[in-house]
Amino acid sequence: MSPILGLVVLFLSLWLALFVHAVHDEDVRTYIVRVNNRMKPSVYAGVNHWYDSTLQSLENYSAKQYSSKLVHVYQTVFHGFSAKLTPRQAQQLEKRPWVVDVFPDRVYKLHTTRTPYFLDLYSDLNFSVAAPLLKYSDYGSNVIIGFLDSGIKPDHPSFNDTGLVDLPVGRWKGNCTVEGFRCNNKVIGVRIINDDGTDVSHGTHTGSTAAGVAVENVFYSDNASGTAVGVAPKARIAIYKVCNDDGICLGSYVLAGFEKAVEDGVDIISASFGDQAHEDFYKDPVAIGAFGAMARNISVIASAGNVGPNRGTVANVAPWVTTVAAGTIDRRFAANLVISPEVTFNGTSLYRGPPLDPTPLPLAYRGNCTSLDENFSGKIVFCDAAIRHPDVNEPISIDEVVRNAGGAGVVVANMPRVGRDLIAKDFAIPGLVISESDGNMSRALIMNGMMTNATMIFRGVEFVTDQLPAPAVASFSSRGPSSISPFVNKPDVLAPGVNILAAWPEGVEYKLLSGTSMACAHVSGLIALVKAVHNDWSPAMIRSAIMTTAYNIANDGNLILNNEDAHESIAWDMGAGHIYPSDAIDPGLVYDITPQDYVDFLCASNYSDPAIQSITSDTYGRTANCNERMPWDLNYPVISIHSKLLGPNITVTRTVTNVGEDDATYTVNVTNSEWVSLTVNPMRMDFTSKGQQQNYDVTITATGLPGSLIVQTYIVWSDGKRQVVSPVVIFPPYSLS
């Protein structure tokens, strides 16, 4: 070979190596591909063959290189597949005429002995006297809740199936697909969709919160003793493991979870995770999967998120999803920071070791307490709360730092925006958590030399109303409005989500957790009870019943407050209010919404045909089928109107369905504000049969409305026995700031 030819060969070899290296180095990630299956060529026997052939035709595609060809194939709630692709290959796919949309996979994050009594499901703490709702629903018997979550520990005492009979033949189409999992008549199905990891803690906790059977003599850390029971103790549980051990739930797995849950025959899907990307619905696997479930009469409940209290942080905002915020209950794991007989700060703790000597010890402030020296030995150390991750305020390691320095105890003070949330924590040494306001006062006294000694008293479980009324909206609970569709108020309702005791798979049998995941589980159980009584109701009717019977008055007789700043909560914080299960089975009137109504909403929100097809299915999405409406015309139980639309007034129409007695008469009452007045026409509705529908118009008039003000009023329909309550929210242009 000549020297020149050798150089040419060397150059070409290097160029080829660099090219291949560049192709391999180009980002490879999972993409979700929406396909119009009606365009499948007849040469292909099935869609799997067609999808695989499509991938093989892409430039530089190598299934071996990317570990697998098709990650998931979707055929129920969504038509298409997910696959590992480079951005260039994804762009090539988008140009194929049968491809409706291609979008990157999304990352979602996973977001009780007292609560059934707090919710008035029982009239005694032994849970022996059940409310009529539980009796009418037979405790949720034969309703199947599908949990998209981590795994579950099916042999936990909370999932014992004693007394539960087999489901009717053909009622359940799923099974246990994993070796070593023993299903029974309580946990009737387990599918491992994401096999990354073995953690089952989150799913065990949420599953037992919603549908755990009664277990007596339960306690955690010598606290919260009593009977643990879920909201719907006879409901059946199916688990779809879509999340890994780090609490990460990829959208491609989530969508596959929706597919399997719908195919298996669940009645309810509970999704306790979300993200903060605020993508449009047609690129959101939760919104897409939930639409397919809703269209098959399956209720979907999701958590609002744990990144409050900032506005516009709420997740899972699709209008066909029931979105749940987290609130407190009236139980406190009481601990006191005692300065003197006259000066005491109330806090919370799960510390279970030897008590402190009642003789006051030196008290010292040390900021966030990331490091301490021997000067803090023998002292009670006052620390500012350390945020371990964005979801919760979790001072896990502070007590370890103080103990290692020889400290006698630790006081953890909530920082700004955490406010009055008192999240009970285990402490390795005597320790407690106090509120932001008490922390500010204590810190100032210490730094001014006015508070030099203290001790701590651990009081155990207390039920209080005077110091911290309940419920209150947890500061961590994500807030509205929705940045995707502000004319649909989110969240929908408030439910217990702080210091919730439920089943745990290891170390202890029951554990306290806080988060909107816990609140979501409570509402999932409640919907199971309502579904058991009203199996013919649509998901929108069930949600309406829960929303219009919710309450907004705490147990001290005042409006429900925000734990962030002790101000009154509005619909952006708690939706229509806190759930009240006993009234939800007999709401009188409901606001129903059909799948076509949601399509009309998407059309009115300027979604394109391909976008609507991505969200819905091939059945929907053609604008010729859309009725001319505005986004605020969706028949939602809460009316949300932008103040710019009031010039000076606007008229909104709602439709109610009678689900009470055949003959019923409802009259309306409205609450007006200084700046906004409501006029309802007609003011009286007469019904002659169950299922009859009637419309009413609401004219909203603004007078001198300040541009920055959020105004909330109410429409209340009553037949003398029931009250059907709908909040009306008028919001300003810059609400997300």
TrEMBL record:
UniProt entry keywords in alphabetical sequence: Glycoprotein, Hydrolase, Protease, Serine protease, Signal
Annotated GO biological process: proteolysis
Recorded GO CC terms: extracellular region
Catalytic residues as annotated in Swiss-Prot or TrEMBL: 149, 202, 517
Cellular compartment(s): Secreted
Domain Subtilisin-like protease fibronectin type-III span(s) in chain numbering: 633-730
Keyword Glycoprotein on entry: yes
GO molecular function, one term: serine-type endopeptidase activity
Domain Peptidase S8/S53: 140-554
InterPro entries per record: Peptidase_S8/S53_dom (IPR000209), Peptidase_S8/S53_dom_sf (IPR036852), Peptidase_S8_Asp-AS (IPR023827), Peptidase_S8_subtilisin-rel (IPR015500), Peptidases_S8_3 (IPR034197), S8pro/Inhibitor_I9 (IPR010259), S8pro/Inhibitor_I9_sf (IPR037045), SBT (IPR045051)
Keyword Hydrolase: yes
Domain Inhibitor I9: 30-111
Residues of the signal peptide: 1-22
CDD domains: PA_subtilisin_like, Peptidases_S8_3
Family, per entry: Belongs to the peptidase S8 family.
UniProt name for this protein: Subtilase family protein
Organism: Striga hermonthica
